[in-house]
Amino acid sequence: MSQPIVDLEHVFVARGASVILNDVSLRIERGEHVVILGPNGCGKSTLLKTLTCELYPLSLSEDSAERLLGTRTPPKTRVEIMGRQRWDLIELKRRMGVVSAELPGKPTLTTSGYDAILTGFFSASTLWPNLTVTEEMRAKAEDILKLVGAEKLRDKHVGEMSAGQTRRVMIGRAIAGNRGVGESSDPKMLLLDEPTNALDLAAQQDLRELMQQLAEQGTAILLITHHIADILPEMHRIVMMRDGRIIEDGAKDALLNESQLSELFGRRIFMSERDGFFNAW
Ligand SMILES: Nc1ncnc2c1ncn2[C@@H]1O[C@H](COP(=O)(O)OP(=O)(O)OP(=O)(O)O)[C@@H](O)[C@H]1O
Asked: If you measure from the C-alpha of residue 177 to the centroid of ligand 1, how many angstroms do you get, rounded to a whole number?
């Protein structure tokens, strides 16, 4: 079997004084589209930060193993991302193509759409004077601008864009980082954290179409969300999280139903399906 993109085993992660991720094991193969689904506060962002190595797993003592697991034998914990346990954070974020739900930082806000895509090659917040942009990068950025449908945003500052326009450009930036320059055998993947947050209905649909297009072109998508409507027909595996644990991990056909969603969100949920997309309320 080929090397997985993500390989977590018995991971516990603390934030402040609390253990937030509780014995999480997760293996994601190259090219797989996966949805991480769960209610507010269940630990999705903590998991994301573990995948991007911004948070590190606890190394359990015998006492804490007894408290958390009822056994004095600590489990063998492992976090391996793209085959490696140690990463330069910037390099890893670039290679994973992370698009977060947060607004870009200040330097990015005064950067044009086209330049923002170029920054992806460097994993930089803006095109700082010491960065050398090559012709190959410029050509790739042109293609990506088209791919994400952001041609009209080429000269607009990110800080003057709407939420949907910003998300589009940030996806373009992540694709640039992900694909890099020169011959690269890196996996093409995007890690999208609540991508449709703050978008109106039309912008949500546009973004889903873009995600579908990328998925069809071979970019693996790891989607973190609590919006059922964001789950693309192309995504067949669902990982359900609650209270810092993975409570289900399996096929969408088996897991995406009213009874499982009601269990996950802790109240009666209704669901409908149309053309491979779902809605829940
Ligand atoms: N910096 C922090 N310090 C202490 N506790 C934190 C911190 N960040 C998050 N938490 C706690 O960790 C738990 C999980 O939070 P996390 O942000 O991972 O959940 P989430 O599933 O991403 O939620 P949401 O859907 O609301 O974004 C919550 O109980 C939260 O209060």
From this structure: 27
CATH superfamily of the domain spanning 87-186: P-loop containing nucleotide triphosphate hydrolases (3.40.50.300)
Measured from the Cβ of residue 279, the count of other Cβ atoms closer than 10 Å reads 12
Distance from residue 267's CA to the centre of ligand 1 (Å)? 21
Per-residue pLDDT reduced to its tens digit, 80-118: 998 999 888 888 888 888 888 777 788 888 899 999 999
**In angstroms, rounded to a whole number, what is the distance separating the alpha carbons of residues 92 and 76?**
23
Q: Structural domain boundaries of the chain?
A: 87-186
- CA-nearest of 241, 224, 250, 247 to 48 is 224
Region of 266 please: left (phi>0), alpha (psi -120 to 50) or beta: left
One-letter amino acid at 217 equals: Q
Q: Is 255 helix (H, G, I), strand (E, B) or coil?
A: helix
- Protein residue with least CA distance to atom 17, ligand 1: 45
pTM for the structure as a whole: 0.89
Distance 245 CA to ligand 1 centre (A): 13
- Inter-residue contact 93 to 180 (CB < 8 Å): no
